[in-house]
Write a structure and sequence with these properties.
The chain has about 70 residues and is mostly helical. It has three helices and no strands. The structure holds zinc ion.
Protein backbone atom coordinates (compact mmCIF):
# COMPACT_ATOMS: atom_id res chain seq x y z
CA UNK A 1 0.00 0.00 0.00
CA UNK A 2 0.99 3.61 -0.43
CA UNK A 3 0.63 6.51 1.92
CA UNK A 4 -0.23 8.77 -1.00
CA UNK A 5 -3.94 9.19 -1.30
CA UNK A 6 -4.99 7.60 -4.54
CA UNK A 7 -8.35 8.60 -5.93
CA UNK A 8 -10.51 6.58 -8.26
CA UNK A 9 -10.02 6.78 -12.00
CA UNK A 10 -11.44 10.11 -13.15
CA UNK A 11 -13.43 8.58 -15.98
CA UNK A 12 -15.90 7.24 -13.46
CA UNK A 13 -15.31 3.51 -14.11
CA UNK A 14 -14.67 2.91 -10.44
CA UNK A 15 -11.16 1.53 -10.96
CA UNK A 16 -8.04 2.77 -9.20
CA UNK A 17 -4.98 3.85 -11.22
CA UNK A 18 -1.92 1.72 -10.56
CA UNK A 19 0.56 4.49 -9.82
CA UNK A 20 0.39 7.28 -7.25
CA UNK A 21 -0.33 10.50 -9.09
CA UNK A 22 -1.98 8.79 -12.01
CA UNK A 23 -5.47 10.07 -12.70
CA UNK A 24 -6.60 7.29 -14.98
CA UNK A 25 -6.27 3.64 -15.73
CA UNK A 26 -4.43 3.11 -19.02
CA UNK A 27 -6.46 4.49 -21.92
CA UNK A 28 -9.20 5.87 -19.70
CA UNK A 29 -8.12 9.47 -20.21
CA UNK A 30 -9.21 9.16 -23.83
CA UNK A 31 -12.44 7.51 -22.76
CA UNK A 32 -13.17 10.34 -20.35
CA UNK A 33 -12.45 12.94 -23.02
CA UNK A 34 -14.83 11.24 -25.45
CA UNK A 35 -17.51 11.11 -22.79
CA UNK A 36 -17.16 14.81 -21.99
CA UNK A 37 -17.18 15.78 -25.67
CA UNK A 38 -20.44 13.85 -26.05
CA UNK A 39 -21.84 15.63 -22.99
CA UNK A 40 -21.03 19.05 -24.46
CA UNK A 41 -22.52 18.12 -27.83
CA UNK A 42 -25.64 17.08 -25.91
CA UNK A 43 -25.88 20.51 -24.30
CA UNK A 44 -23.55 20.50 -21.31
CA UNK A 45 -21.65 23.70 -20.51
CA UNK A 46 -18.21 23.42 -22.10
CA UNK A 47 -16.29 25.10 -19.27
CA UNK A 48 -17.68 22.68 -16.71
CA UNK A 49 -16.81 19.67 -18.82
CA UNK A 50 -13.27 20.92 -19.47
CA UNK A 51 -12.76 21.55 -15.76
CA UNK A 52 -13.17 17.81 -15.10
CA UNK A 53 -10.02 17.20 -17.11
CA UNK A 54 -7.23 18.05 -14.75
CA UNK A 55 -4.28 18.13 -17.12
CA UNK A 56 -3.44 20.58 -19.87
CA UNK A 57 -2.80 17.75 -22.33
CA UNK A 58 -6.24 16.25 -21.70
CA UNK A 59 -7.85 19.67 -22.07
CA UNK A 60 -6.15 20.32 -25.39
CA UNK A 61 -7.23 16.88 -26.60
CA UNK A 62 -10.76 17.72 -25.48
CA UNK A 63 -10.66 20.95 -27.52
CA UNK A 64 -9.40 19.05 -30.56
CA UNK A 65 -12.09 16.40 -30.33
CA UNK A 66 -14.80 18.97 -29.78
CA UNK A 67 -13.83 20.81 -32.98
CA UNK A 68 -13.76 17.53 -34.90
CA UNK A 69 -17.22 16.54 -33.78
CA UNK A 70 -18.95 19.91 -33.74
ZN1 LIG B 1 -11.49 4.61 -15.74
Amino acid sequence: MTTTEQGACLCGCGGTPAYPGSRYLPGHDRRHIEQLVSDVLAGREEAGARAELQTASAQSEFDRRLVERA
